[in-house]
Design a protein that fits this description.
This protein has twelve helices and twelve strands. The chain has about 450 residues and is of the alpha+beta class. The protein has three domains: about 100 residues, Alpha-Beta Plaits (2-Layer Sandwich), CATH 3.30.70.1050; about 190 residues, Trigger factor, C-terminal domain (Trigger factor, domain 2); about 100 residues, Chitinase A, domain 3 (Roll), CATH 3.10.50.40. The strands form four sheets. Strands 7, 8, 9, 10 and 11 form a five-stranded antiparallel beta sheet that branches. Strands 3-5-4 form a three-stranded antiparallel beta sheet, with helices on both faces. Strands 1-2 form a two-stranded antiparallel ribbon.
Length: about 450
């Protein structure tokens, strides 16, 4: 068994603070388990019936076939058979085999998952009056709902405080910061304009030189030692100082090396943060600062509720998936995997990223995620059916109204959702999932956990 280490490198400005990430991979032997959902049956097709079908097809071909010296539909049958016989035979075999397989599956009342595979049985007697075909297919599993009293789930809680609202307002103010040139030494928060040149062993290294490079001092974009050297400099001042790159620096040729930087500070601009007053509120299209605070609080409460719901839902779904014990059809997993790959390709395309298709050729890519999705989908369907969980129309409307609150014309958005069957179905699915989560929380071993507002809002929604 071999062990490999892959190092992911990040390209950056030499003085910027970026580290590498080392990913360890280890080869493992693949153990193939038998598929308990795979079934196989045999069907037969009468050669006599098959010959009749082939002849009927050839007659249809003969009506349209064109042969030199014969009017359409009047060519000898042996000429039609010589030209179209193989095609007619293959079509007849396919149709007869599919029809026989469909009948057998229907009579056997199999809950078929995906598309069956049909192929001739090997070693059969060529003189027999029938042709035998094997039909391989997967069936849906018997889905067992876990005993919820043994399932531990977490319901997350968070209270919105006035301090949280104020922090959000502060961020809004900071986002609208303007910078004004000032005649003093540089300090944290200032926008500085510099020329710099870095040398390794007396030679300028790649990316080590720039003119009029701007950044905000103290935000941690540059290496700490680089920022410390600029802190306290005045416009027009030039300084040369040594700097040692971290051992884990992204550019390997610079990692752990001492270089010499020469920096000239061209300009210092101090931040001008607007005041939280009626004038600022009006610049955002709000009547006054009181209304701005109320709007911000309402929006935060709505976002908070959504994130708490999603965080709790994810915890519940993960717990259900972990507790569920039943196999999933490989056919459905592959369909889901391909859908996920296509979605990923579309995402890259939308972002203008050109990713070669060869990256997605590995059969293991997104396999576990696809298995989880299929398994969870089957489990949720079983819960919904067995527990008679439904999305009430009032709940669907309430969700549409909640979404619409952040839009300029809420009523128009509500109608946009509810008057379109596909969009309404999406909302119905979300409400149904939420109702399943509520059912689990009532019946499982549920604990409540308080999360910090800033932690909740910093996670990806």
């Amino acid at each position: 068994m071999t062990e490999a280490k892959d190092t992911v490198e990040t390209t950056q400005t030499p003085a910027e603070e970026v580290k590498t990430e080392t990913v360890e991979t280890q080869e493992q032997p693949v153990k193939v388990e038998p598929n308990p959902l795979l079934k196989k049956i045999e069907v037969s097709v009468s050669k006599e019936e098959l010959d009749k079908d082939i002849m009927a097809r050839l007659k249809r071909y003969a009506k349209k076939a064109k042969f030199h010296g014969f009017r359409p539909g009047h060519a000898p049958m042996h000429m039609v058979a010589a030209t179209y016989g193989a095609e007619a035979e293959q079509e007849a075999i396919n149709d007869k085999a599919i029809a026989a397989a469909a009948k057998a599956l229907d009579e056997g009342k199999f809950a078929v998952a995906g598309r069956p595979s049909i192929y001739p049985v090997e070693g059969q007697d060529q003189n027999a009056p029938e042709i035998k075909f094997a039909v391989e297919f997967e069936v849906y599993p018997d889905v067992t709902i876990p005993e919820l009293k043994n399932v531990k789930v977490t319901e997350f809680e968070c209270e919105l405080s006035d301090e949280d609202v104020q922090k959000t307002l502060d961020v809004m103010l900071k986002q609208r910061t303007e910078y004004k040139k000032i005649d003093r030494v540089a300090q944290d928060g200032d926008l500085v304009d510099i020329d710099f040149e870095g040398k390794l062993n007396g030679e300028v290294f790649q990316g080590g030189k720039a003119d009029h490079y701007k950044f905000i001092l103290g935000e941690g974009r540059m290496l700490p030692a680089f920022e410390e050297a600029i802190r306290g400099m005045a416009a027009g001042e030039e300084k040369t100082f040594p700097l040692t790159f971290p051992e884990d620096y992204g550019a390997k040729e610079l990692a752990g090396k001492e270089v010499s930087f020469t920096v000239k500070l061209n300009e210092v601009q101090e931040p001008i943060v607007p005041e939280l007053n009626d004038e600022f509120a009006k610049s955002l299209g709000v009547a006054d600062v009181a209304q701005l605070k109320a709007d911000v609080k309402e929006n935060l409460q709505r976002e908070l509720k959504s994130r708490l719901t999603n965080k709790t839902k994810q915890n519940v779904m993960d717990a259900l998936l972990k507790a569920a014990e039943f196999p999933v059809p490989e056919t459905l997993v592959e369909i889901e995997r391909q859908k996920m790959i296509n979605d990923q390709k579309e995402m890259f395309k939308a972002r203008g990223i050109n990713v070669p298709d060869s990256i997605f050729e590995n059969k293991e890519i997104m396999l576990e995620q696809a298995k989880g999705r299929v398994k969870l989908g089957l489990l949720l369907n079983e819960i919904v059916e067995k527990e008679n969980i439904v999305a009430e129309p009032a709940q669907v409307k309430a969700l549409a109204e909640d979404i619409a609150k952040s839009f300029e014309d809420p009523e128009e958005v509500v109608n946009w959702y509810l008057n379109d069957p596909e969009r309404k179905a999406q909302l119905t699915g979300v409400v149904t999932e939420n109702n399943v989560v509520d059912w689990v929380l009532k019946n499982a071993e549920t604990v409540k956990e308080t999360v910090k507002f800033e932690d909740l809002m910093s996670t990806q929604a």
